[in-house]
Batch of 2 targets.
Target 1
Amino acid sequence: MQPCSGAPNSTLNSTAIWSYASVVTPTTSLDSHRKCRPKSSCVPNSTMSSPPQPEPRGRVFEIQRFSIHDGPGIRTTVFLQGCTLACLWCHNPEGGSSRPVLSFQPDKCVACGWCVSACPEQAHHLDVETGTHTLDRDRCRVCGACTEQCYSGALEVVGRDMGVGEVLQDVLADIPFYETSDGGMTLSGGEPLAQLDFAAALLQGARHHGLHTALETCGSVPLAHLERILPWVDLFLYDIKESAPERHREFTGGDGAPIIANLRYLHGTGAAIRLRLPLIPTMNDRPDHLDGVAELVHELPGLEGVEIMPYHRLGTSKMSRFGWPQGPEFETPDDAMVEGWITALGQRGVTVRNR
């Protein structure tokens, strides 16, 4: 887990970090990128005289440090905006939008009135007698002017444009933790491959600096997207949300067949894959779905394992912050229910990693 000999350290600015990483030539070989190469081969001679490449940019809605549930070890998880599905139980609804969104939490507002005067669209209204703050989202164009001096945190733009070097600068700051825990960087979302160029550049840059890389994906992307990023991914965290085709479309808005086809393709390449099962009471915790999961696991013996992702209500609580209609609420499973799912899969010959 050591950074490449001669590679820049995290104290360099983001432009230097990207400029250094951008000269690495992609390869179709997974093994050649498992470990960072010697200093002499870090920068291929054939590219030394090439002009600097423009830095890819993308939209990020969160960078979460010290993550322990998004792959092995201690990790930094980078959440990219945009998604190819619309799951009824989504816990990151802000990741579904491809554009920045304004979060407004009235309970945090201290009625200072600064946003009223700052907004060029006159979207904020404050009742001076009651202190009630209302936001006209039809007028708001998410310029962010209202957030600049909102010290209470009631207003926040979620989703910002960032360059690859800027993101990697944050990620590389925690190299000592990755080294001691076999951690690294994980891309999540949304669906990170909805921003293919940006995701590919981040994975390539992280791998160039010797980091373990993981990609959380719903698999609902063109096969060419997976082929492109495959050389730069050490571990795929691959969601299987529903086995029945009709229910998959009902629950997620997308076709499940390409997702399974893409999974079979990745498995055939020898890629490291861990299946993740979001299980939502009364929706997809049915015996027939567990049967479908077991059938798939037995078909793909090279999988690294299966994880259950129990439903939680985080996404439901976020909807009002962004002015979106409240979605359906489901029962939050307790420990006994989760253990029941683990036992049921075990009876079908599937070992679950949650324990």
Target 2
Amino acid sequence: MVTKNLTYLTKQQIIEGLIRLGEKPFRAKQIWNWIYARGVKSFDEMTNISKETREVLSQNFSFEHPQISKDLTSSDGTRKWLIKFSDCREVETVFIPEETRGTLCISSQVGCTLSCKFCHTGTQTWVRNLEFHEIVAQILLTKDLLCDWNKKERKLTNIVFMGMGEPFFNYENVAKAVRILNDSDGLDLSARKITISTSGLVPEILRAADELKTNLAISLHATNDKLRTEIMAINKKYPLAELLSACKIYNRKNPNQKITFEYVMLNGVNDSEIHAQELVNLVRKFNLNVKINLIPFNPWNDCAYDCSKSEQILNFQKKLKNAGLISPIRKTRGDDVLAACGQLKSSSQRS
């Protein structure tokens, strides 16, 4: 008998499947809690469900998770996993532990369509979108590997969609995944603990403002259209004025959240005081509630850029701070195992 993988189903689909089997719909909440709040992988562990019902469930449903192809640990404690799905396609997922929180950087696509010139993932051709359950599986696998099923002492506290791919090119699956992460019967991660990073897809930013209400990060990286189009082709479709207008709407609809502007520091490209002033001017012009993450560039083989000098990054930061903008310099984590920002890539190819 062919069984359905429970983790491939939404809660509503589980309810419908149970009704077809003559079971009560409330069983779906119990099953959901066992999978997403307690991390069980067999019906035998579901002790608040009768043995007879468990037997029926095991005849009709199964548990399957992706495989770990590679497990690397950086000298700073950052961990990177290469995750293989049922079709042998792979993505990378990175866990960044800190004293007061643990952040998981997850992927939404195998490869990427955007080819941003400073990003390693962009050198890998887009292969396919991840299904919503493949996105969620990255969290479940991480919690297994970290032994992190004690809700009162969570090691994994924050999720960032900053891995491989452009999340908003896979909006529907990302949205389904976010709803599963939010579900209080399961993983119970609030929208404030989830950040979606986008290169600037304006229609999806506007949708997310109403539908998802997570934290929003914008891969900005340039302060004028000429430069941004040169290093990020998406700017041709959604130039800065259109993008920042969408950010203003996101601010208005989510007034308690600052949008994060991600700004990779590229030596001699986007790191001058003129660029810093242009950035200040943009924030003021659109009256945005933002913070700006300054990201030292993390090199990879055959890349065409170098990281800005430390003094240059500090001067850039000083200009922003003097204008009253929050502008931390992101600490590089996991670069010795190519797990740092902009370094992720798998060997999967389109067939």
